[in-house]
Specification:
- The chain is of the alpha/beta class.
- The chain has 2 domains: about 20-40 and about 260-350, Aspartate Aminotransferase, domain 1, CATH 3.90.1150; about 40-255, Type I PLP-dependent aspartate aminotransferase-like (Major domain) (Aspartate Aminotransferase, domain 2, 3-Layer(aba) Sandwich), CATH 3.40.640.
- It is built from 11 helices and 13 strands.
- The strands form 4 sheets. A 5-stranded mixed β-sheet has the order 2-8-7-6-5, sandwiched between helices. Strands 9-10-13-12 form a 4-stranded antiparallel β-sheet, with helices on one face.
- Strand 9 (about 285) and strand 10 (about 295-300) form a beta hairpin.
Length: about 350
Amino acid sequence: MSSRYWSDVVRDLSPYVPGEQPKLPNLVKLNTNENPYPPSPRVLAAIEQELATLRLYPDPNSDQLREAIAANFNLSAEQVFVGNGSDEVLAHAFLALLAQDEPILFPDITYSFYPVYCGLYGIDFEEVPLTDTFQIRVDDYRRLNGGIIFPNPNAPTGCPVGVADIRRLLDHNTESVVVIDEAYVDFGTESAVSLINEFPNLLIVQTLSKSRSLAGLRVGYALGDAELIEALDRVKNSFNSYPLGRLAAAGAAAAMADRAHFENTRHVIMNGRTKLVTALRGLGFEVLPSSANFVFARHPGFDASDLQAGLRARHVVVRHFDQPRIAQFLRITVGTEEQCARLLDALGELIT
């Protein structure tokens, strides 16, 4: 469907397709990598306290939140940018930093929003194939480019890239920006934040949607050299000078301050992942090594689409990507112990 009133840009877009949000009773929802555990109680208290101020515009710079994030990473507030979820932060980064003369580089199997941003902003790109074992090999990015971006750990595979490899990439790639999308970094991958003060062309993007259980607040942030952050601010202030509402900013700052809740929650999920991987392999699945809050698995004897449909019929929802190389994989969020038990029971019915 198209309209004669649409612009050429809109007519040619292939929008991102998010994970399904089904309305099924007694649902086990393991398709969008949401945290199955509640956010810090401090978040709820901070939001409740902020309710009385809703008649006022929020701080356009979200200074309190930027300072809270900076303190968490031993950076200055000038090295922090915040936005409505990491997707908006990434969108600003594509326009502010990656819209260059040369094509940008990202993996052939990765977050499917990247080519959407390229289409929206008219950015040329080249896809760099993952290895046969679905790993990002940074030496494959040693070519002329207008920028490099990839998730770490990668999505939807969950496979990580070591900081030493990222350093080697940055040592070679000095003339364009390198964006590391660390949406899932807190579940077992070492962050590259330690390299920010050494490499002025490094931008780290993170989110509070996953490890801090705040997908519903839509808060993401970028960390990098002050000049990179200024570029993001310039785009933001040319688009929406009040990006975060008062409730989101207050809740996010409280989440960043509660380190104990964050550490406990992420370790519960990592332990659950280990148990889930063991159980899936016991059912005959091949499971890629994951450092995220999800696993990527395939069964040699059963079609992934059929398994997904069978699970959905049992009110268990997982993600399937009908794409080359990964069409036989399912991406499964690590849920609670009870959710994982229902998943495994349903799979046991389907494959026996």
